[in-house]
TrEMBL record:
Enzyme Commission number: 3.1.11.6
Catalysed reaction, written as an equation: Exonucleolytic cleavage in either 5'- to 3'- or 3'- to 5'-direction to yield nucleoside 5'-phosphates
Coiled-coil positions: 1-63
Statement: the UniProt record of this protein carries the keyword Protein transport: no
Transmembrane residue ranges: none
Protein known as: Exodeoxyribonuclease 7 small subunit
Statement: the UniProt record of this protein carries the keyword Coiled coil: yes
GO molecular function ontology, one term from the record: exodeoxyribonuclease VII activity
Subcellular location: Cytoplasm
Length: 69
């Protein structure tokens, strides 16, 4: 499986574009379903990226030591 190299900002913009197309109501049922699937895949990519960042966040303790979030 190819790893998604888009940044979170790019993914959010792409999701916004998908939502706008769906809200227009000008698409066929098949196209709406394809856009929905694409949006759900992008949402999963966003969640995966956010989870990865959360795991990298370090907490600085009072004594100057750090540990993972």
């Amino acid at each position: 499986m190819e790893e998604n190299k888009e940044t979170l900002e790019e993914l959010f913009q792409s999701l916004d574009d998908v939502v706008e197309k769906l809200e227009e109501g000008e698409t066929s049922l098949e196209e709406s379903f394809r856009l929905y699937q694409k949006g759900m895949e992008m949402l999963k990519s966003c969640n995966d990226k956010i989870d990865a960042v959360e795991k990298q966040v370090l907490i600085l303790e009072e004594n100057g030591e750090t540990h993972e979030f």
